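Morning F.,

Quick status update on the modeling queue. The single chain you submitted on Monday has been processed. Sequence for confirmation:
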Amino acid sequence: MVCWTINLLWLSLNSSAQIVNYFFILFNWSRLIFNRVTALVVFNLELVFV
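Structure tokens below.
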């Protein structure tokens, strides 16, 4: 019974760690895309205003 509970705890820890990993990956990608987009927009604005 104790072993089963430890197994369950371990499984939930693993899955939550995976979820956190996915969140980090998503966050990094969105930040990267956001940086690219803002750089492009700023570049285009500079072209327009020059």
